[in-house]
Amino acid sequence: MMRRVIVVTTLLLLSGCASWKFTGTTPDGPANFDSWQQRLGLIEVMDSWQLNGRLSVSGKDTDDAQGKLAWQQQEKNFKLNVRGPFGIGATRISGDGQSVTVKNKNGEFYAPDAEAAIREQIGWEVPIDSLRYWVLGRPAPSGIASMDVNSLGQLIAISQNGWQVAYSEYGARGKASVELPKRLVASRPGVEVRLAIDSWRLP
């Protein structure tokens, strides 16, 4: 049975860590979050990973694009290489938590914010800051999240930071101790971002 979860992230200023508070009910009584909490504990430690897949961006508020994606995450540092029929050639986006660099055939650009840099230099509306967590099947550490989880504790839908995310398939595993998402769609009015993950690589 699917269960609705309301998640509130509280920033603990002294420790610098995020704390999760779970509340919610189902039609037959209080929701049981044991499987979800166990899964989240395993996912939260995954701060370094790589994925390869296919990205599609479409909608009235963004430039349409589709092609192959290679994403490398090393704690706050990330590198995204995208290639395919984007109309801009191969593009590399990298950041370190303080600044972002975008490289493509038009040159090299710098910005303090990943989402703004991608929007201004490429024309895509992609929630990179939150997507880094959503691709793992977990909410981002900031913002209130409303979620649906299945009986295995897998996240199948989440609403957070103005976006709706739906997961249609799990199974990619690599060296992970839990199954990771293979297909997800993040959308908000005027924008849809689709991601199909072909492979995961963890240290």
Tell me what you see in this structure.
The chain is mostly beta strands. The chain has two domains: 117 residues, no CATH class; 60 residues, no CATH class. The chain is built from three helices and 15 strands. The strands form two sheets. A 13-stranded antiparallel sheet has the order 2-1-11-12-13-14-15-5-6-7-8-9-10, covered by helices on one side. A two-stranded antiparallel sheet has the order 3-4. It starts with a strand and ends with a strand. About 12% of the residues have low confidence.
Topology (elements, then pairings):
Elements: E1 3-12, E2 17-23, E3 25-26, E4 29-30, H1 34-43, E5 48-58, E6 65-74, E7 77-83, E8 91-95, E9 100-104, E10 107-111, H2 114-121, H3 128-134, E11 145-149, E12 155-160, E13 163-172, E14 180-188, E15 191-201
Antiparallel strand pairs: 1-2, 1-11, 3-4, 5-6, 5-15, 6-7, 7-8, 8-9, 9-10, 11-12, 12-13, 13-14, 14-15
Compact overview of the structure:
This protein is mostly beta strands and 203 residues long. The chain contains three helices and 15 strands. The chain has helices spanning 34-43, 114-121, 128-134; strands at 3-12, 17-23, 25-26, 29-30, 48-58, 65-74, 77-83, 91-95, 100-104, 107-111, 145-149, 155-160, 163-172, 180-188, 191-201.
